[in-house]
Specification:
Helices cover about 45% and strands about 25% of the residues. By secondary structure, the chain is an alpha/beta fold.
């Protein structure tokens, strides 16, 4: 049986949406639907109840095959990894660049425990730098791979290979002393005319202008203010006037001094490496980490 069709089925079953699944798999909806139909013909029963267009559900047979396929795919991928580990005896060092202020380390540590068992002869070090330094340090070879926001990849051409790692929405970070915090039901439009702080850097400046346009769509008309680094931004925000954009992994989100507000606009994180990367250990790491994040939470350990 074609593992691709099985993986497509699992993705649709977990998203309960052909649209979301096709986006995650980077295939068209029509191609995805065709593969699912072929799988249903192969097993001889419908796997999805399509009677209600906006309420996709698994049939009883679909539930049965979902449990079977997820177990088999996990066992297959683990067997492939172990076999490759034994045959290639991968060793060496991997240096991973992270965004300062984001608590990426705690989110990848469960993967690192699995990695260390499979590749005990590979050491992985992580270093956090400002967002504007990630691509330059990747290009000059200081980092083997980096985890970064999508906007930092724009204009990089074919020299960089990137893979979706984790998708979430934008957040606004503001102080408990901010006037908006006293609103009964705070809204994005309540931040109208307050400064929004962005780190000073040519790429970050351009993205800050994009963020302002996003805020305008939701009724805020912010004043863009550029500051030298992440710490300075947090200091200004904590004073009680102004706010900044953040990600759910930002350490500041767990700080009792601050509050957050979701913005329904995607803010994905990517893993990127140079296309000409020759470090076998780093190539394996860049292959496996996105696969691990793509798994359901319960299947990651």
């Amino acid at each position: 049986m074609d593992t691709r069709k099985i993986k497509y089925f699992i993705e649709v079953a977990e998203r309960m949406s052909f649209t979301k699944a096709s986006s995650r798999l980077f295939v068209t909806q029509s191609a995805l639907s065709q593969q699912i139909s072929l799988l249903e013909k192969e097993v001889g029963v419908p796997l999805f109840d399509r009677s209600k267009k906006r309420d996709l559900k698994l049939t009883e047979a679909g539930e049965l095959f979902y449990e079977l396929f997820t177990r088999q795919i996990k066992e297959y991928e683990e067997a492939v990894i172990k076999a490759q580990s034994l045959s290639n005896a991968v060793s060496g060092k991997v240096k991973l660049g992270l965004i300062e202020g984001l608590d990426i380390v705690s989110h990848v540590m469960p993967f690192m425990r699995r990695w260390e068992k499979l590749y005990p002869n590979v050491s992985v070090t992580m270093e956090s730098v400002s967002p504007g330094q990630l691509i330059p340090h990747l290009s000059d070879g200081y980092f083997d791979a980096v985890i970064l926001f999508e906007f930092l990849l724009k204009g990089q051409g074919k020299s960089i290979v990137d893979t979706l790692l984790y998708d979430s929405n934008f957040k606004i970070l503001y102080s408990r002393n901010n006037p908006v915090a006293y609103s009964e039901i705070p809204k994005i439009s309540d931040f109208a005319n307050q400064p929004v702080y962005v780190q000073e850097h040519p790429v970050l400046r351009r993205n800050g202008e994009k963020e302002v346009n996003i805020l305008k769509r939701f009724g805020a008309d912010p004043v863009l203010s550029f500051l030298p680094n992440h710490d300075t931004i947090l200091a200004e925000v904590s004073s009680g006037l102004g706010y900044t954009f953040t990600h759910e992994w930002d350490r500041s989100c767990s700080n009792s001094m601050f509050l957050t507000m979701d913005i329904p606009v995607s803010d994905p994180l990517y893993m990127a490496r140079r296309k000409d990367l020759k470090n076998d250990a780093a190539l394996r790491f860049c292959e496996l980490l996105p696969q691990w994040f793509a798994q359901k939470d319960d299947d990651r350990e």
